[in-house]
DNA sequence: ACTGTACCCTGTAGGC
DNA sequence: TGCCTACAGGGTACAG
């Protein structure tokens, strides 16, 4: 589910509800998600104020007044829902398109103003961990992350330096969070399509022998940025599970050039090729064999 | 060091 | 209708 545009959309929806507010209590309704919850999880969050809500890669990070960060990952099917007012869990208090789901509502944040923020995750590939704010950058989850694609660090030179000598194909290379942090299966397919690059070509084709960027790398950087910015503007992509924190669906799935469009005609003017589906590293890739080389 | 595959878990869609 | 298989926005633990 959630790649960078979806996580960023969730962050923007949650920030006005969470930042500057105090957590009255936290209910963890099971001992774990993908990993066990932190030791003394509820006690470490209860009573704290939330002083910031950031995104890095596909992580949401709530900074607490205690000096600890609550780091959350949505996995494939994680979602947050804001429930306003009252004590009872009645459907009417939920945003449109959402409702109580006792079997998959795993964590509830009860804020001191009466608002609840509920984390729901059927497949439980998501996780929540805590760490000291000052040590976050050195933590195993963050230490080796690649460039933020919308930040200044992502340049053709950066990509070329990471790609030099790499034999993996471009699809797997761009999926690697140590290279670019935040791209996933949808937006790698879309960025390669927009840049006109074949997912099968070796990553090394982004660099020349001296490690300087090729014209392919120069084309790829703005394509990645543009796809992500347009997707954020559309509120992300809703295929199945993903929802904004207020329950709304994303709209970018209506703008896909290739993702989930196998068999349809390429929309690039003058192309007329047929979109194909292939598999790279066990994940579906969609591309136009005529305009991606 | 790098690369590919299996696996974690649940729900749903499609074929028979 | 029911049963079975394949597949799904993610990341990690291995084996080679």
From TrEMBL:
Q: What EC numbers are recorded for this enzyme?
A: 3.2.2.23, 4.2.99.18
The GO terms this record gives for MF are:
8-oxo-7,8-dihydroguanine DNA N-glycosylase activity; class I DNA-(apurinic or apyrimidinic site) endonuclease activity; damaged DNA binding; zinc ion binding
CDD domains, sorted: EcFpg-like_N
* Catalytic activities: Hydrolysis of DNA containing ring-opened 7-methylguanine residues, releasing 2,6-diamino-4-hydroxy-5-(N-methyl)formamidopyrimidine; 2'-deoxyribonucleotide-(2'-deoxyribose 5'-phosphate)-2'-deoxyribonucleotide-DNA = a 3'-end 2'-deoxyribonucleotide-(2,3-dehydro-2,3-deoxyribose 5'-phosphate)-DNA + a 5'-end 5'-phospho-2'-deoxyribonucleoside-DNA + H(+)
Occurrences of domain FPG-type (ranges):
257-293
Q: Carries keyword Transferase? A: no
Q: Which cofactor does it need?
A: Zn(2+)
Q: Which UniProt keywords apply?
A: DNA damage, DNA repair, DNA-binding, Glycosidase, Hydrolase, Lyase, Metal-binding, Multifunctional enzyme, Zinc, Zinc-finger
One of its Pfam families is zf-FPG_IleRS
**Binding of DNA, residues:** 104, 123, 166
Q: Which residues form the active site?
A: 2 (schiff-base intermediate with dna), 3 (proton donor), 58 (proton donor), 283 (proton donor)
Keyword Iron-sulfur carried by entry: no
| Cofactor descriptive note | Binds 1 zinc ion per subunit.
Which PANTHER family is this protein grouped with? FORMAMIDOPYRIMIDINE-DNA GLYCOSYLASE
General function of this protein: Involved in base excision repair of DNA damaged by oxidation or by mutagenic agents. Acts as DNA glycosylase that recognizes and removes damaged bases. Has a preference for oxidized purines, such as 7,8-dihydro-8-oxoguanine (8-oxoG). Has AP (apurinic/apyrimidinic) lyase activity and introduces nicks in the DNA strand. Cleaves the DNA backbone by beta-delta elimination to generate a single-strand break at the site of the removed base with both 3'- and 5'-phosphates.
Give the quaternary structure: Monomer.
Please give the name of this protein.
Answer: Formamidopyrimidine-DNA glycosylase
Species whose genome carries this gene: Hyphomicrobium facile
């Amino acid at each position: 589910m959630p790649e960078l545009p979806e996580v960023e959309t969730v962050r923007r929806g949650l920030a006005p509800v969470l930042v500057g507010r105090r957590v009255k209590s936290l209910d963890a309704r099971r001992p774990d998600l993908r990993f066990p919850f932190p030791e003394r999880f509820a006690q470490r969050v209860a009573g704290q104020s939330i002083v910031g809500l950031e995104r890095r890669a596909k992580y949401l990070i709530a900074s607490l007044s205690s000096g600890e960060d609550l780091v959350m990952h949505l996995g494939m099917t994680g979602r947050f829902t804001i429930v306003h007012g009252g004590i009872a869990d009645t459907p009417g208090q939920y945003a449109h398109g959402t409702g109580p789901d006792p079997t998959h509502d795993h964590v509830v944040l009860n804020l001191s103003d009466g608002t609840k923020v509920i984390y729901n995750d059927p497949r439980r590939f998501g996780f929540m961990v805590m760490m000291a704010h000052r040590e976050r950058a050195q933590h195993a989850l963050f230490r080796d992350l690649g460039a933020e694609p919308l930040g200044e660090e992502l340049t053709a030179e950066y990509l070329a330096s990471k790609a030099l000598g790499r034999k993996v194909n471009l699809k797997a290379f761009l999926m690697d969070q140590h290279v670019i942090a935040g791209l996933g299966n949808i937006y790698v397919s879309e960025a390669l399509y927009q840049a006109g690059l074949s997912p099968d070509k070796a990553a090394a084709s982004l660099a020349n022998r001296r490690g300087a960027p090729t014209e392919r790398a120069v084309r790829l950087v703005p394509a990645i940025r543009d796809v992500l910015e347009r997707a954020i503007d559309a509120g992300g992509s809703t295929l199945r599970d993903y929802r904004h924190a207020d329950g709304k669906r994303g709209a970018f799935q209506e703008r896909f050039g290739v993702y989930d469009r196998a068999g349809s005609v390429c929309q690039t003017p003058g192309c007329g090729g047929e979109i194909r589906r292939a598999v790279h590293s066990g994940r579906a890739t969609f591309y136009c064999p005529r305009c991606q080389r």
